[in-house]
Design goal:
- The chain is mainly beta.
- It has a domain of 167 residues: OB fold (Dihydrolipoamide Acetyltransferase, E2P).
- The protein has one helix and 13 strands, in the order ββββββββββββαβ.
- A seven-stranded antiparallel β-sheet has the order 7-12-8-9-10-11-13, with no helix packed on it. A four-stranded antiparallel β-sheet has the order 5-4-3-6, with no helix packed on it. A two-stranded antiparallel ribbon has the order 1-2.
- The longest helix is centred in the last third of the chain and has 6 residues.
Length: 248
């Protein structure tokens, strides 16, 4: 791994605790020390060519990252799309070639080309389609409206002026990887999870009883509240831009 101090920060550990030091997320702690890589989500160095110096593993995300070295001497990380190789030249431009790693506005991208790193808000930086193996597709361009099909199957309207990067996000085989031992989970900061039925009645509402027993009640959280309760609000302001919802 190429160590560039300006692009690395140490990830702060919380171990699932809030600002009072109380556990707010259970089963967390013991994470290995990690560095966060500063990813260039905006790609705002316009018309300045950059050479791919290396393709690297990033422990903070599913996709690999590519280290770019620009003609003006600057360096930055971007997500490495499938097909991007060391030595390739990429650029962010209004009329950049349709090539993996190049960044350009949606209005200049042909229909059917795989893209990633889109943003809902103009000039905000990439917000969606950033996971390994994901790709969105341009379906149509109509003035300032671009109709995009997202990896979930949802068809959504974006601003045609907003930028996207050409190509499918690399490391597509990530979803086939399996953890082979408990220690790999512990290094990721995940501690053991014990079933409520196997605990003492003092520790969990489902606990206690002789031998193996059913919970004998509606499922409850460790704090006695009903489990499986909807906690998210489905209605969002951006829903009016959805042309077709994803298939459940």
């Amino acid at each position: 791994m190429t160590r560039i101090r300006s692009l690395l920060t140490i990830k702060k550990k919380t171990s699932g605790r809030d600002d009072q030091g109380h556990i707010s997320i259970r089963h967390r702690g013991g994470e290995q020390k990690r560095f966060l890589r500063e990813i260039d989500w905006r790609r705002d160095k316009i018309d300045i060519k950059a050479k791919v110096v290396s393709i690297e593993y990033d422990p903070g995300r599913t996709a690999d990252i590519a280290l770019l070295s620009y003609e003006d001497g600057a360096k930055s990380f971007i997500l490495a799309p499938t097909g991007l190789k060391v030595g390739d030249i990429v650029v962010s431009s209004e009329n950049a070639p349709i090539k993996e790693g190049n960044c350009l506005p949606l209005k200049n991208i042909p229909v059917g080309v795989p893209i990633h790193c889109l943003s809902f808000i103009l000039n905000k930086g990439a917000q969606v389609v950033k996971s390994a193996g994901n790709a969105a597709y341009v379906q149509s361009i109509d003035g300032k409206k671009a109709t995009i099909k997202l990896p979930s199957g949802e068809i959504r309207i974006f601003n045609s002026e907003s930028k996207a990067t050409i190509g499918q996000v690399g490391n597509a085989e990530h979803s086939t990887q399996k953890l082979t031992k408990a220690g790999q989970k512990r290094l990721r900061g995940i501690r053991p999870t014990v079933r409520g039925v196997a605990q003492n009645p003092h520790s969990h509402p489902h606990g206690g009883g002789e031998g193996r027993s059913s919970i004998g009640m509606h499922p409850k959280t460790p704090w006695g509240k009903p489990a499986f309760k909807r906690t998210r609000k489905r209605k969002k302001a951006s829903n009016k831009l959805i042309v077709q919802r994803r298939k459940k």
